[in-house]
Amino acid sequence: MRMTGRLYKGPSVLEEKVVEVDDSAGTYQDRLERCLLEVCGLLAIEVPIWLSKNTREYVRFRRTSFNADQFFNPVHFDRFEIRIIQE
Fold first, then answer.
1. For residue 24, what pLDDT is reported?
2. What is the pTM assigned to this prediction?
3. Domains of the chain: total
4. Sheet order of strands, 12-20 included
5. Which letter does DSSP use for residue 10 in this model?
6. d(CA 20, CA 26)
């Protein structure tokens, strides 16, 4: 599983990172969680609060975004987006 994480400020991409997790390790949910933790670590941001809207978006589009208010502490970006890269 490959995931890209992007930080946006307005319409501009501030930073982008890609992580990859072995598809044979654990359940899909485990791999998704591991990817999210790794991409947040690479971007040096805290893990956002995952809401039901994120689940709906992710199931439908294999991507979701997190607004600044989904983080406990103030952040330097407006939006954080994750997307699964299909091969």
1. 82
2. 0.91
3. 1
4. 12-20, 2-9, 79-85, 63-67
5. T
6. 14
Task: Quickly tell me which residue has 């971007």 as its tokens.
Answer: 43
Range of the domain at 53: 2-85
> From residue 70, how far is each of 52, 62, 67, 81 by CA, in Å?
12, 19, 6, 12
| Residue in the structure block whose two tokens are 């791999």 | 31
Within 13 Å, how many C-alpha atoms sit on residue 65's CB side? 11
pLDDT(61) > 80: yes
The dihedral built from the CA positions of residue 29, 30, 36 and 37, taken in this order, carries a sign that is positive
Which pLDDT tens digit goes with each residue over 67-81?
Answer: 999 999 999 999 999
The burial class, CB within 10 Å (0-12 / 13-18 / 19+), for 87 is exposed
Could you count the other beta carbons within 10 Å of the beta carbon of residue 34? 17
The encoded tokens of residue 15 equal 């930073």
